[in-house]
Design brief:
Number of helices of chain B: 5
Structural class of chain A: mainly beta
Shape of chain A: globular
Distance between the termini of chain B: 40 Å
Largest interface: A-B, 41 and 45 residues
Radius of gyration of chain A: 17 Å
Strand order of the largest sheet of chain B: 4-3-6-1-2-5
Oligomer: heterodimer
Helix content of chain B: 10-25%
Shape of chain B: globular
Distance between the termini of chain A: 17 Å
Strand content of chain B: 25-35%
Number of helices of chain A: 2
Largest sheet of chain A: 6 strands, mixed
Largest sheet of chain B: 6 strands, antiparallel
Chain lengths: 199, 255
């Protein structure tokens, strides 16, 4: 390892920062193309795959579900972390209970309006670890941050928290998503610094 | 403690997997606020234009800072990696990199990324739209075209900068434009322009896009936009409004 003798850190090393991350107060945007404009009128969320009751929610229907408030640190693979972000959303536990997800389901594939997808093991979206968020810091989620609704899985790198959420598909095998087949890690634990395929 | 067979000096066979020691071989100014740094690495593999590298600095106390920088060099430029590093006010890593002397070393790994890339086997016109230091990965694409392609495909490089001093690679762009009649470099200056300036003097808008890249829209161009978030949001939204296919627009934003 190289020691950079004259390198003087100017940022503190907060215990809440995973390795290689730095804190930002802004909310930078990472996405792959133009921001899709999805109005709440046309928005629908589909829950499908290995479920007893496939469900489709309109925006109005979705807002009648129990909404939880969550405050979490988030970590982007591009190296920024943001502390204490506040979200409101419906827990995946609640959605999975209503849809009756089969015991055969091993993975959740989240699909977005722009064709993006990402893969998550079931155990990472159950037990109060994941939400479909509809509000950020007390307001509707801005389009560039994934509004009207985005997935929120804060314990993994933030690309797993798919923006512009359209469909939650439960499957019995792993299906690597958009970034996962383009050089990024299949699981993405920030504390293990699982950024890229080989990490 | 030494673990037999686990000598940390043993180079990995894949530079994307582990950090390697990079040595600065030359540097120059790309613009008033962006420095070109060219590193030599022991284990070099070609990147794709648009990909980035991660660099890591370690202080004597063991503190580590990592940042990502896009490659500016063409993949055909063997054994070296050229980065463009913008000096950031209150930056932690960029001031160190700016002061790094020739022969100085840092750790690097990569190349990384598989979406914001252009290779010359991709058909059709090429549209590059860069805001400030967002020009860096786009320059790699243009250099890749120059080194590996050189075809007559239309290429438009639209550059937005606060002033002329903030436009990267000016001389090289001028030379490439003289070499390729199918390449046009269009610069818009948003804050200040010299008195004799004949070009655009405003932020990129729908009208400007229509007059410039609009000319190649019918040819289904691959379009790459890189710059600050607000710039990328505005330009990509206008392009879609102008009838550019969203799936042919690829974006990269600086936090």
């Amino acid at each position: 390892m190289i020691i950079n003798d004259d390198f003087e850190p100017t940022r503190g090393r907060d215990k809440r920062l995973p390795p290689g991350q730095y804190e930002t107060r802004d909310f930078p945007v990472l996405s792959l193309g133009p921001t899709p404009e999805v109005s709440t009128d046309e928005w629908k969320l589909e829950i499908s795959g290995l479920v007893d009751h496939p469900l489709t929610f309109s925006w109005e229907e979705f807002l009648t579900l129990p909404i939880e408030e969550v405050k979490k640190d988030i970590h982007c693979v591009t190296k920024w972390s943001k502390f204490d972000t506040q979200w409101e959303g419906v827990s995946l536990d609640e959605l999975m209970r209503r849809a009756g997800v089969s015991e055969r389901a091993t993975h959740l594939i989240a699909h977005s309006h722009d064709g993006y997808s990402t893969n998550l093991p079931i155990e990472d979206v159950t037990g109060g670890k994941a939400w479909v968020a509809v509000r950020y810091e007390g307001e509707e989620i801005a389009a560039e941050h994934g509004g009207p609704a985005r997935l929120l899985v804060p314990h993994l790198y933030f690309w797993k928290s798919a923006k512009w959420l359209k469909k939650l598909e439960f499957v019995d095998h792993d299906i690597p998503g958009f970034w996962e087949v383009r050089g990024y890690h299949n699981y993405g634990d920030p504390w293990q610094e699982q950024r890229y395929t080989f990490d | 403690m030494e673990i037999p067979g686990k000598n940390s000096a043993t180079p990995s066979t894949d530079p994307r997997r582990s950090w390697q020691e990079a040595t600065l071989v030359r540097s120059s100014m790309a613009a008033g606020n962006v420095k070109t740094l060219v590193f030599r690495v022991p284990l070099w593999i070609p990147h794709q234009s648009g990909q980035h590298y991660d660099i890591r600095l370690t202080s004597p106390s063991g503190y580590q800072a990592e940042r990502s920088y896009s490659a500016a060099s063409a993949p055909e430029e063997r054994d070296v990696i050229e980065l463009g590093v913008e000096i950031l006010e209150n930056g932690e890593v960029s001031p160190y990199l700016w002061k790094l002397p020739e022969g100085g070393q840092i750790e690097i790994r990569g190349p990384i990324g598989g979406h914001f890339v252009w290779t010359h086997d991709m058909p059709g016109p090429l549209v590059l739209i860069g805001g400030g230091s967002g020009m860096v990965p786009l320059m790699s694409m243009l250099r890749h075209f120059d080194r590996a392609d050189g075809s007559g495909r239309p290429i438009i490089f639209l550059v937005s900068a606060r002033n002329l001093d903030r436009v990267l690679y000016k001389e090289e762009l001028k030379a490439l434009e003289a070499k390729y009649p199918n390449l046009s470099v269009i610069i818009t200056l948003t804050d200040e322009a010299p008195p004799e300036w004949q070009g655009y003097r405003r932020r990129v808008d729908g009208g400007m896009l229509r007059e410039t890249v609009g000319k190649v829209r019918e040819g289904m161009p691959m379009t790459y936009i890189c710059g600050p978030t607000g710039f990328v949001e505005a330009v990509s939204r206008e392009l879609v409004a102008e009838g550019f296919a969203p799936h042919l627009i690829r974006t990269e934003r600086f936090g």
